Amino acid sequence: MPPELILVSTSPYRQELMAKMGFRFRAVAPRFEENHVHNGDPGELARALARGKAMSVAGDYPHAILIGSDQVVWCDGRVLAKAGTPERAWRELQSLRGRTHEFYMGLYL
Predict the structure, then answer these.
(1) Burial of 79 (0-12, 13-18, 19+ CB in 10 A)
(2) Are 65 and 18 in contact (CB under 8 A)?
(3) Distance of CA 7 to the CA centre of its chain
(4) Over the stretch 84-96, which tens digit does the pLDDT of each residue have?
(5) Do the Cβ atoms of 26 and 60 come closer than 8 Å?
(6) Cα–Cα distance for residue pair 50/109, rounded to 1 Å
């Protein structure tokens, strides 16, 4: 029997994406405080967040394949924090309009 596939995420979008790709998986919530990870490099930050999420539940699923992921938005030399509310998300999207920004994706298996 193949190992269980665990998506360490509460993101409905990531869960939907995995399902659309035909993966059989279980989603579990990470037990990881993202605000404890600080790094000036957005790519390294995305990787560290993805790793932290996966490793936060690794002891609970020692024989499973764990997928941790995160995305970081970089604009004007700073990382944009997660919006938290629809209103804040709208303000942040408006602030990005017409400005160059980059998305960094971290993936940890």
Answers:
(1) middle
(2) no
(3) 10
(4) 889 988 988 888 8
(5) no
(6) 9
Look up the pTM and report it. 0.85
What is the rounded CA–CA span in Å between residue 85 and residue 83?
Answer: 6
Active site residues: 70
Which string of DSSP letters, residue by residue, matches 39-82?
A: -S-HHHHHHHHHHHHHHTSGGG-TTSEEEEEEEEEEETTEEEPP
Q: Distance of CA 29 to CAs 1, 26, 65, 66, Å?
A: 24, 10, 15, 12
Question: 40 and 97 in contact (C-beta within 8 Å)?
Answer: no
Q: How far apart are alpha carbons 109 and 14 in whole angstroms?
A: 15
Q: Where are the domains of the chain?
A: 5-108
Instruction: Report the pLDDT averaged over residues 30-53.
Output: 86
Domain 5-108 has CATH 3.90.950.10: yes
